[in-house]
Amino acid sequence: MRSPQPPPPERSAELRRRFSEEARSERPDLATLCLLIGAAADGTLDEAGIDAAQIELDALAGRLPYRPGTPRAWASALRELLGERCGFHGTPGDYQRLESSLLHEVLRRRRGLPILLSVVWLEVARRAGAPVFGVGLPGHFVVGLGEAGATADAKQAAKPDPRDEATPERQVLVDPFEGGRVLTGADTELLVAGATGAPLNPSMLAPADPLDVVLRILNNIRAWAEVRPERSDVALWALDLSLLLPSRPAKLRYERARLLVRRGEFLDGADELEAYAEVVAAVDEPAADRIRGEARAARALLN
Fold first, then answer.
1. Residue 166: its pLDDT value, please?
2. Where does this protein have compositionally biased stretches of type Basic and acidic residues (predicted)?
């Protein structure tokens, strides 16, 4: 199946403008940013489609029970609705599809990467009034329900002592990729160990900022395009959106310049390499010289 194709240049420019405005607003809206990413990827997603996706998230929230109560009760209600009745989940094959990183496609297919499925959980739960937040574990994104500040004891909160039923849980973690399964402390430790080979650090359980979630989604899209040289256009627009975020790694400018050279846009790539070299020169002159050498090599490809 052919992966989505981006819209015409004029539409792409308008989407970038709106993305930048939303990302720099006082309270960036995660669903809006994800849908603008989807529109940048898929030229068939128009304004009516963006509105329909927001309406669907509202409708899903309306199907939840009114304020179920404890974090575990919220987790159960979300799993029953989203994981069981609606069938949202993921499979290994979803990592091979660009659609798995696009919110409107995840809502349509009920399938996606852990982070996009988590966005669905987050947005539905938030609209329903749940105490919810994202947790960007290394290699696997999950959702927390309960007190976002309870990270220091989250390992214990995820596996409460069955002998102390009178003590309410402050926080539970769920895995939307597995249909909303509640994670025990051991489950969380295994996820982290599998991704890093290191033990779980409580700092890994800190609530994820919406803009960090968006950057991670764009990184996933770039990773998808990296192994598909014929889709360097996808890597380029994902980099362009990443660079519009108010806080992003400076090296993205370098990556964009090198991508332009790989795409055969030698002059533009060389100009960007030289501009980045000037930034680097302030802290690392030898590195700046190496980057200037890359720029000269790119210009030489025109001869």
1. 40
2. 11-23
